[in-house]
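Severity: low
Component: inverse-folding endpoint
Summary: output formatting inconsistent between runs
Steps to reproduce: submit the following structure tokens with default settings.
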């Protein structure tokens, strides 16, 4: 996890979760048995669904997710 600021709004600090593509390709989740990439996509989908449903005060808000390069996937959330 990294702390960062939003490019268009330097006053907003966010948390960035960096997921290595090589780890996503090779590791398996011990909880669900799904490939880690599927777990990452499921995490993003759940966060989006929760946000659409009004969110929850005890959960981080999803700000963005992106694949900037061939090596990593990034999930950006509010910083608490």
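Observed output (run 2 of 3):
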């Amino acid at each position: 996890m990294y702390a960062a600021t939003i490019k268009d709004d330097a006053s907003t600090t966010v948390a960035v979760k960096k997921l290595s593509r090589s780890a996503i390709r090779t590791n398996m989740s011990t909880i669900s048995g799904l490939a880690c990439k599927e777990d990452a996509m499921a995490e993003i989908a759940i966060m989006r669904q929760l946000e659409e449903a009004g969110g929850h005060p005890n959960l981080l808000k999803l700000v963005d997710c992106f694949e900037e390069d061939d090596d990593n996937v990034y999930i950006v959330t509010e910083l608490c």
